[in-house]
Design goal:
32% helix; 4 strands; alpha/beta; 25% strand
Amino acid sequence: MNYVFTTVYPKSLKFFREFIRSVNSQTSNDFSLFIICNGVNLSKNFLNLIKVNFLIYNVDDTWQKARLKGLKFLLKKKLNFVIFADSDDVLHKDRVK
């Protein structure tokens, strides 16, 4: 499995909709979205926007420790590659390709 790895935290929520739009617009759908929720609970409104397979990992820690914990969790899964993306980024449509 391939993953797009991101962390959502309170200040990044205002950008998260646009990030999700760019994830949904990928020309390849051979991936899952791995979302670390660091100090936030995503509402159903946000979750309903996500059109790809996704996995949520909840944590409340510093951004460095949150990413490390999430990465350690993800590395236990069977995976081919991981693309790191900030939740305030907009991905090019061929980013996963």
